[in-house]
Amino acid sequence: MIEKMKVVHIVAAASEKTALLDRLRTLGIVHFAEKASADFAAYREQVEGERREARVSDLVKDGKVKPADKEKVLTFAAALASQGGSVDFAAPDGKSETISLEERYLRELEARPRDQRFAEFSTPPAHAGNDQPEWPPDDMVSKM
Predict the structure, then answer these.
(1) Number of C-alpha atoms within 13 angstroms, CB side, residue 119?
(2) Computed from CA positions of residues 51, 55, 57, 61, in that sequence, does the dihedral angle turn out positive or negative?
(3) Of 24, 29, 35, 27, which Cα lies nearest the Cα of 6?
(4) pLDDT digits (tens, 9 = 90+) for 77-118
(5) Which of 22, 28, 80, 133 is positioned for an S-S bond with 101, CB 3.0–4.6 A?
(6) Distance between CA atoms of 14 and 75, rounded to whole angstroms?
(7) Could you tell me which residues come within 8 angstroms of residue 120 by beta carbon, excluding any fewer than 6 positions away?
């Protein structure tokens, strides 16, 4: 028979914690929240990593970060995320905003102008007008 799980809070001295947990594990019917919170923390880190990867990929696609610098940006953003610090901004109208160090760094990268080295140079200039040559190419070749 399957029964609904119950949450039980156990209070013990820190010095007796490991011994108590070992005794409860031998019962085989108790699940510990420590493992669940560790699993959730790993899942959350994976989701944040995927979000960070997608955001930096968009910056590369927009030409604001060089493709060669993508790994450096990801590593630095992950290091800032692990620091846990924050930055406070205040506007003259009294509004304030607190953001993480990682968010501040990524917003700064998003505010960069597009790197023109990634611009498309193969488009004809605007003053070129029509795309049809004045002389047919066959006539030009025959005159050579």
Answers:
(1) 7
(2) positive
(3) 29
(4) 999 999 888 889 888 888 898 999 999 999 999 999 887 776
(5) 80
(6) 36
(7) none
Residue at token pair 């399957």:
2
Long-range contacts of 17-22 (CB under 8 A, 24+ apart): none
**98 phi/psi in degrees, rounded to 5:** -115, 125
Q: 0.85 exceeded by the pTM?
A: no
CA-to-CA separations, 54 to 15, 44, 50, 100, 106, in angstroms, rounded: 45, 15, 6, 18, 12
Taking only the tens place, the pLDDT of each residue in 27-78 is 776 666 566 677 777 888 899 999 999 999 999 998 899 999 999 999 999 9
Q: Which of 109, 62, 102 is nearest to 84 (CA)?
A: 102
How far is 51 from 93, CA to CA, in rounded Å? 32
Confirm if 66 and 72 have CB atoms less than 8 A apart.
no
Other C-beta atoms lying within 10 Å of the C-beta of residue 110 = 13
Spatial contact of 7 and 31, defined as CB atoms under 8 Å apart: no
